[in-house]
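Bumping my old thread because nobody answered last time. Still need a sequence for this structure:
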């Protein structure tokens, strides 16, 4: 038996130190290190069956997690066995260093199991101090950049892939803005199931209101409005309706919780407002306006950070002028920072001709939506309008939440298309852009206009929508994210020129060095096609490479700038080259 063990684990060195304890070097593969083996090796005096306390200790160490393993890269000429003899003798009299395996022959990188007991930084510093060691790091698990949620029905949610949501989810899955403001979408609808297990956590809660005490604690005119308000019955208790429950699932079904569907926002706060008549719609909008103005005025201490309203309703064929009071609500909400998104009629007609409330209303803070199918064409029986209807969004046979803690795969119509857009606005507010988030409280109307532009200037062009919508396209939240990324890193003059997305992420060949001439530091601003990696090199006029090949991978919402220290370069002219698969751009600068 012992021979079998020794064929799997090889003791290379054992020596006795001053304390009388043994220190050994062991070569082994991790799967061979079981308790009996280690005890037999470490305590040979006790025989193979001896169980000593020190052995127990070693065993515990060896069975520890993979995070307790050390990755060390040595100079090419270093012999690892000799190195281990040295460190065990010199530094750790009682130390057991186990060489688990070679990770890279070419780079001389090895995996070790050191004895724990001293602090991790101390162990790391010790190894980093050794001249043979090029680098040392504790092992760590990698994070999978998989942005596909684990919700059971996600396979049926064709609409999410279509609007580019998974690529945005790599950056954010919603919830809060850069400075931690809790993002709220107000949903005006007939009724809601607040108890649905895939929605419950994502409902807004009015923290300033004490429930069931019969008092209007926050003095907004509504008693006990803890989750919003039911304007239909003038009550804090909501009617339960499938329509509103399905709309909410598109905006914000809890994502990646293993059940049901994922909303465009995996995390969000939805404010339900039950409405049925025009008077209730107006009162509900006023509720939203009051809450958002309170938030702006109190710098987030009161009210709610409502960034969008969702209106999957209207009155077919009625021009906006027929209900001017309703139509007048969108501008003041916009001034407070709230974009409103409205579904147009489920009728095969031209809203430019027949009119519609609200989708023929004129407000720069109102976004109007028609319904597109899996073929990206306008779905049969959905209204259109080259002057009135802004864009299309998926709305045919979408999967979402339904009544009785259930789901449906048949939610169709402009009612389904609309929450894709309101949900997208909320998701965009959660992107890591300090600039836009600051604007949201200091210049809320400008922030709202910025978000509207992000959505409407970045639709996916669809030929059949060219004459049927203002933008000629279908919602694309990933393209909208790219627009905001570029906006966040662009200079003021680039923002004024308005072509910042093209400049930083499009086919424009930006490579800019500043200052030029320079004497110490050189900043290189570069463009990338769709965040694709590229290489940057700098040559002198003799063609000698001054700056070694750098592999650059632009990350969303990080500056596309490289800083070089050219302080000790000779004076003269240099060339910066930028390469990717399809481009090679050169730019010259002078070093004084
Ligand atoms: Ca109240
Ligand atoms: Ca109360
Ligand atoms: Ca879910």
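Sorry it took so long. Here it is:
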């Amino acid at each position: 038996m012992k021979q079998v063990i020794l064929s799997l684990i090889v003791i290379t060195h054992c020596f006795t130190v001053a304390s009388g304890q043994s220190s050994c070097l062991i070569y082994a593969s991790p799967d061979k290190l079981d308790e009996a083996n280690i005890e037999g090796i470490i305590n040979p005096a006790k025989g193979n069956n001896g169980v000593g306390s020190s052995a127990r200790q070693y065993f515990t160490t060896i069975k520890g997690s993979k995070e307790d393993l050390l990755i060390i890269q040595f100079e090419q000429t270093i012999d690892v066995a000799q190195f281990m003899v040295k460190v065990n003798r010199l530094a750790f009299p009682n130390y057991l260093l186990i060489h688990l395996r070679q990770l890279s022959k070419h780079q001389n990188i090895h995996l070790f199991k050191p004895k724990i007991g001293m602090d991790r930084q101390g162990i790391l510093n010790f190894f980093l101090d050794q001249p043979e060691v090029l680098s040392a790091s504790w092992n760590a698990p990698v994070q999978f950049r998989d942005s596909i949620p684990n919700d059971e029905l996600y396979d049926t949610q064709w609409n999410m892939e279509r609007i580019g949501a998974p690529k945005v989810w790599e950056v954010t899955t919603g919830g809060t803005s850069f400075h931690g403001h809790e993002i709220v979408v107000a949903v005006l609808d007939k009724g809601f199931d607040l108890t649905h297990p895939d929605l419950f956590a994502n409902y807004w809660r009015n923290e300033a209101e004490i429930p069931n005490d019969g008092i209007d604690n926050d003095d907004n005119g509504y008693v006990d409005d803890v989750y919003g308000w039911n304007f239909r019955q003038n009550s804090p208790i909501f009617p339960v309706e499938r329509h509103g429950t399905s709309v909410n699932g598109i905006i914000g079904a809890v994502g990646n919780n293993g059940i049901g569907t994922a909303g465009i926002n995996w995390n969000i706060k939805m404010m339900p407002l039950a409405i049925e008549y025009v008077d209730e719609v107006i009162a509900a909008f006023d509720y939203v306006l009051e809450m958002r103005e309170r938030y702006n005025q109190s710098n987030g201490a009161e009210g709610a950070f409502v960034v969008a309203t969702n209106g999957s309703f209207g009155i077919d064929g009625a021009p906006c002028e027929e209900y001017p009071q309703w139509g007048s609500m969108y501008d003041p909400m916009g001034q407070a920072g709230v974009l409103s998104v409205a579904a147009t009629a489920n009728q095969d007609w031209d809203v430019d001709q027949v009119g519609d409330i609200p989708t023929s209303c004129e407000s720069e803070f109102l976004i109007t939506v028609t319904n597109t199918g899996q073929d990206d064409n306008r779905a049969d029986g959905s209204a259109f309008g080259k002057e009135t209807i802004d864009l299309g969004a998926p709305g045919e046979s979408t999967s979402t939440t339904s009544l009785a803690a259930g789901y449906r795969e048949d939610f169709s119509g402009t009612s389904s298309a609309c929450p894709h857009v309101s949900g997208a606005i909320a998701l965009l507010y959660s992107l890591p852009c300090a600039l836009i988030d600051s604007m949201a409280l200091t210049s809320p109307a400008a922030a709202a206009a910025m978000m509207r532009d992000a959505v409407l200037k970045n639709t996916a062009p669809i030929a059949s929508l060219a004459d049927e919508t203002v933008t000629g396209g279908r919602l694309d939240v990933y393209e909208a994210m790219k627009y905001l990324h570029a906006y966040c890193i662009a200079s003021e003059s680039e923002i004024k020129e308005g072509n910042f997305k093209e400049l930083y992420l499009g086919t424009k060949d930006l490579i800019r060095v500043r200052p030029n001439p320079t004497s110490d530091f050189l900043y290189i601003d570069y463009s990338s096609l769709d965040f694709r990696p590229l290489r940057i090199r700098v040559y002198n006029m003799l063609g000698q490479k001054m700056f070694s090949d750098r592999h650059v991978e632009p990350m969303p919402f990080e500056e596309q700038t490289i800083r070089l220290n050219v302080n000790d370069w000779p004076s003269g002219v240099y060339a910066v080259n930028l390469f990717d698969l399809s481009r090679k751009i050169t730019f010259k600068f002078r070093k004084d």
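The longest helix spans residues 278-297. Let me know if any region looks off to you.
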